[in-house]
Design brief:
By secondary structure, this protein is of the alpha/beta class. Helices cover 43% and strands 13% of the residues. It has a single domain (18-321), classed as Aldolase class I (TIM Barrel). The chain has a nine-stranded parallel β-sheet with strand order 5-4-3-2-1-9-8-7-6, with helices on one face. Helix 4 runs parallel beside helix 5 (123-139) and helix 6 crosses helix 8 (187-199). The model has no long low-confidence stretch (mean pLDDT 95). Bound molecules: iron/sulfur cluster (SF4). Residues 68, 70, 72, 75, 77-78, 116-118, 149 line the site of iron/sulfur cluster. Iron/sulfur cluster (SF4) binds at residues 68, 70, 72, 75, 77-78, 116-118, 149.
Length: 327
Amino acid sequence: MKSVNLINKIRDKVIKCNDITWEQAHKLKEVKEDGLYSLFNAAYTIRKKFRGKKVELCAITNARSGACSENCAFCAQSSWNKTKVKVYPLLEEKEVLKKAAQAQGAGAGYFCIVTSGRRIQDKNDFLRICKTISKIRKKLKLNVDASLGELSFDEAKALKEAGLFRYNHNLETAQSLYPQVCTTHTYADRIKTIENVKKAGLELCCGGIFGMGESWSQRLELAFALKAFSPECIPVNFLNPVPGTRLGSQPPSSPLEFLKITALLRFIFPKQEIKVCGGREANLRSLQPFLFLAGADSIIIGDYLTTKGNPPPADLQMIQDLGLSTN
Ligand code: SF4
């Protein structure tokens, strides 16, 4: 079967049944360069059907930076990696509130509080984060998300009661590659937190990082593992190698390869928010607008945890120029 016919057949099935089999996803991963635009177009049709024209905008803040005990190979904040990242303890409530107000002013609808480290050990820090979430909810019109590492069920419940909307905890990569990415905590540890988040009734934001040397089969392995948890949002990071990290000299994939990953994820998650996060600017370069034409419907605006992003007005202009909307 010609690749365009195969792509359109699988597209129609996904639109009808909201589902794709492992075999069909594997057939799509075999699409070669001359079929890529057909693949993007089909992913765009699925996105338009289930997500409309809206692009969700999320801003993140690094509320505690560096000095992390864990050895994640991609991360500038791990104390195992020799990077020049800033190190500071948990920010005061008023500083986080200021950053939330700036995020709202820049056009974000979501604001995510992120902290380095395996988990929040200090009870007072945890209570301070809960109080900050409640204040943001009272003063601003933002959905508040958080990414604080491992969570117990009781902590997840407390965050929900404080007004948290969504919690981020990624699987990071395929289980078969995970031991090469991190050995200080396990894949099973990550799943425990994901289960606690779901049990507490929080929305789940769960995805990974692509471009860490994984194969196409491992990309699908990750996607289908994520599918089992039905996350409301799938954050998609493209490795932006930071000098001094274990993956600091990882050769980059091409922009078209990252677009193909995005399109495949749209086939696998027809109804979910697919949020392109770190590494967008460095890896997609001039092809950033194509992300929305290949199935994405959400981005992070502003700076990332340790690297610079586009100025938010430039991203808002890009979305407007594409005929998409942010409200
Ligand atoms: S990804 Fe999180 S847990 Fe891993 S080193 Fe970075 S801050 Fe620590």
